[in-house]
User: What shape does this take?
Amino acid sequence: MDEKICIFDDVYNEVSARAQAEREKVGAFGMLARMKLWDRPKEAEIALTNTEKRYEPFWMAKASRRTRYTRKLAYHLRIEHPHVVTVELLGQKLPVDARRELQLPAVEDCESVTALVHFVDALRHDTPEKALVDYADRFTCRDLADSNQPQFIAPTVTAASVLQQVKSRLSAPVEAETIASDEVDIESLTLFYRPVFAFQFAWKDKSGVIEIDGLSGRVNKEGDMLGGAVRALGNRDALFDLGADFAGLVVPGGTIVVKLIDRLSKKRPA
Assistant: This one.
């Protein structure tokens, strides 16, 4: 299984993000504050008290399910001649039924392959998967081997949890007589980090945070400062550790076997 950590390059830098936040700072105190006629925040009364740049994580897993199975069924062959009673076919004498059809018993050998690219917000935010797909497809990123910069948020969704979600999405029932093999191949698991700028503003005794997405420029007027959770990247193996769930992923219950391609045989770099 190919394991990568990737970091996106800024599209909006801190200067442009701050300018955007300044334009939106009144919105940091909620709609009710803006609607008050007698006591609403004025731009001159709002002060910037804190700033933060951080990298927030999301996962991308690529996998495929390959199932080999058999199906028993009958093929229907229409007989046009009105006087035919039986037909000898492939060494068998078969009767013509009341619908003027031959029922040909058959066993089909089948193979189905289903590919999946699965995205997960690694902080359990309610981020639509489409938005994460858009980040991965549209914006430039680079592999990150290590970083001592204290700007990263650790994922709260583990690698093992992501792979369990992949297995679940690929576990649709197969209409089969017998299943010869049923395997989910986990091809790659990537942890992406995207830039987010946060600007904390104060007005009277209230404070609010405007977040600016460093890729899309999207404004979140209900943001947070996550300084306490921001740290250096940390140990790469720890981020991809499958923990106690590892055995369950390799040989899970039921018929599906999850294969972490090359994970067991590939020696990890020190």
